[in-house]
Amino acid sequence: MRRLPLIPLVLALAVVAGWSAVAPAPADANGCYLRFLQGTTGTAEDPILIPDRAALTELATSSSCYLTDYVFRQTADIDLSGGAWTPIATGLAFTGTYDGAGHRITGLDVSVASHNAGLFDSLNNATVRDVVISGGRVVRTAGSGGTGALAGFANGSDVIRVQVDGTRIEGLTETGGLIGTVCGGSITHSRSSATVVGTGAVGGLVGAARPLCLVSVGSVSIATPADPVTLADSSATGAVSGVGAVGGLIGQFSDGTLERSFATGAVTASGQAAGGLVGEVLSSYGVATPAADVPSALTDVYATGVVAAAGGAGGLVGETEQGTVITRAYATGRVAGAAPTGGLVAGAYVVPCPSSGISVCSVGVAAAAPATSFWDSATTGQTASHGGFGSARSTAEMQSLATYTAAGWPIARGFSS
To answer: Which is more confidently placed, 262 or 416?
Structure first.
């Protein structure tokens, strides 16, 4: 099974656009007005306060505020309804720390045809925590770039306890309920109930997550490795739809760690590769030889949403590449579509060689996984899974503690069928 041929090129262009948005620029000569107005130092002990829309707008439009390592703390709920929102650091990136302190941002209304779309345009080596984005919509209408409620693009950043409730996200490639494209960094203890619609690499939480960014230097694009992505203790519950590489949690995932996370929303792809949790799992972003492949690891994860695709629909993962490791996972949602389909994993594909002189590319042969994962053969409607991933179980067995303890699951506190 081959993935859609246009996706790698379009995704590469999107990442270039995302990276160009995080290029540094000089700070304003007069410094951050908010800091001087409040007489603060902008440190964790003495943060710059964001009490209302006016202050958030000042942060959004002042490079001397967002191109710094200042710490900002939201002190009240902020309503952004009544007018279109221009993303923070449009065309550049936020590089400091934003602490939402558990407060809400409501009425977010973003519609762009260039740069990245979200509350923030991009995050670069930034930290965002304890923010709640409620309602509103984020729309990207044209061009390349990421789309997400929090940010279109995040490079080497940490996102902690960020929540998206009831927002509608509409983008093209690399569209996610929380962030469109994640390159390195981490997302922990975050969740989204957003409805997400896109084309390629579409996910309930993240559109695409990878350690490889393409940096545009003049007319040349250079592949620059970053640290592997870590996504943990997070979830998505909204419906997700697109063309290819569509997942309940992540659309396209490469060379990272995904653990203690789940998705429950319905997943629909008009093309190939749809999974209840992840649409596509790649190795080295599909550009390395097998010897250089870095395995992606999915541990303690599950998906319960209905999955449908024209091909490559899996209860947990749509399509996967060499080296993927899945441990202690399960899927229960109905799986429908043309072959291949799978209760846990639908299939693998041959990765086409890029025009980089590499003559031998990964052939998409996934290694057999330990027998620690399961799918419900009755509710999924599937009797097989690609590559030896998981085992079929009846509904009664899926609801029995013995199924999991026999497979070595460390269930220490309670159990509910």
So the answer is: 262
Beta strands in 44-94 (DSSP E): 48-50, 71-74, 78-79
Mean pLDDT of 9-18: 39
Partnered with residue 163 across adjacent β-strands are 132, 191
Pull the structure tokens for residue 368.
């057999």
* Residue 13 amino acid letter: L
- Asked if the bond preceding 370 is cis, omega within 30° of 0, the reply is no
> Look-up: residue for tokens 């923010």?
131
Comparing 249-263, 350-364, 382-396, 400-414, which segment has the lowest mean pLDDT?
A: 350-364
What string of DSSP letters covers 268-289?
Answer: EEEEEEEESSEEEEESGGG-S-
What is the pLDDT, as a whole number, of residue 321? 77
The pLDDT value recorded for residue 322 is: 66
Tell me what pLDDT residue 348 has: 77
Of 258, 235, 76, 111, which Cα lies nearest the Cα of 165?
A: 235
Helix (H, G, I), strand (E, B) or coil at 85: coil
Instruction: Return the SS3 of 299.
Output: strand
Least confident segment among 67-81, 174-188, 309-323, 371-385: 309-323
The three state secondary structure string of 341-395 is EECCEEEECCCCCCCCCCCCCCCCCCCCCCCCCEEEHHHHCCCCCHHHCCEEECH
Radius of gyration from C-alpha coordinates of the chain? 21
What are the strands, taking DSSP E only, across 6-150? 48-50, 71-74, 78-79, 97-99, 104-106, 109-112, 120-124, 127-129, 132-134, 137-140
Pairing of strands 120-124, 78-79: unpaired
